[in-house]
C-alpha cells in the first residue's frame, strides 16, 4: 500500500527549510508570499523585530477593483506590481524572496517577475 503525504504538510515542511536558510533584516527584508485557492497575499517583513513593513493582497479594495478574478496568473502579476510600488514608495529596494514552500512556477513566478519590474531587487 502506498502512503502519500498530504500536499499541504509537504509545503509547510519545505517552507520551514527555506525559513532556516534566511530571514529578513532592516537592510534587506523578506518578501513572503502565500497563496490560497482563491487569493494571494504578499508581505515585506523585517524579521529582526517582527514587523510587517508593507503588505498587499487580492482582498485589498484597490487591488480587487482592477481584477476580474483573484486566483489566476494575471491577478498574481498585478499583486506583484502593487507590492513592488508600495515598497519602493517606502524606500525598500532590496528584498529576500520567500516563496513559502510553493513551487516557483505559475502564480508565484508571475508575482516575483512583476515585483522585479516594479523596482524590487532579489
Labels describing this entry:
122 residues; alpha+beta; four-stranded mixed beta sheet; 4 strands; globular
The percentage of residues in β strands lies in 15-25%
Q: Classify the secondary structure makeup into a structural class.
A: alpha+beta
The N- to C-terminal Cα distance equals: 43 Å
Q: State the low-pLDDT regions, or none.
A: none
Total number of β-strand segments?
Answer: 4
What is the number of helical segments per DSSP (H or I, 4+ residues)?
4
Widest sheet, order of strands: 3-2-1-4
Radius of gyration: 15 Å
Assign a percent range to the helix content: 25-40%
Average pLDDT reading: 96
By oligomeric state, this entry counts as: single chain
Largest sheet: 4 strands, mixed
Shape: globular
Compressed to H and E, one letter per element, the order equals HEEEHHEH
Describe the overall structure:
This protein has 122 residues and is of the alpha+beta class. It has four helices and four strands, in the order αβββααβα. A four-stranded mixed sheet has the order 3-2-1-4. Strand 1 and strand 2 form a beta hairpin. The radius of gyration is 15 Å and the shape is globular.
What topology emerges from the helices and strands here?
Elements: H1 7-21, E1 30-35, E2 40-46, E3 51-57, H2 61-64, H3 73-89, E4 96-98, H4 107-117
Quick gist of this model?
The protein has 122 residues and is an alpha+beta fold. The chain is 39% helix and 19% strand. The N and C termini lie far apart (43 Å).
Amino acid at each position: 500500500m502506498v502512503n502519500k503525504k498530504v500536499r499541504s504538510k509537504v509545503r509547510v515542511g519545505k517552507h520551514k527549510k527555506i525559513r532556516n536558510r534566511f530571514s529578513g533584516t532592516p537592510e534587506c527584508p523578506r518578501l513572503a508570499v502565500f497563496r490560497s485557492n482563491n487569493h494571494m497575499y504578499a508581505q515585506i517583513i523585517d524579521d529582526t523585530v517582527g514587523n510587517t513593513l508593507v503588505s498587499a493582497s487580492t482582498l485589498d479594495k484597490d487591488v480587487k477593483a482592477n481584477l476580474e478574478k483573484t486566483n489566476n496568473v494575471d491577478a498574481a502579476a498585478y499583486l506583484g506590481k502593487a507590492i513592488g510600488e508600495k515598497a519602493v514608495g517606502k524606500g525598500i529596494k532590496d528584498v529576500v524572496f520567500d516563496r513559502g514552500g510553493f513551487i516557483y512556477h505559475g502564480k508565484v513566478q508571475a508575482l516575483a517577475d512583476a515585483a522585479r519590474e516594479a523596482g524590487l531587487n532579489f
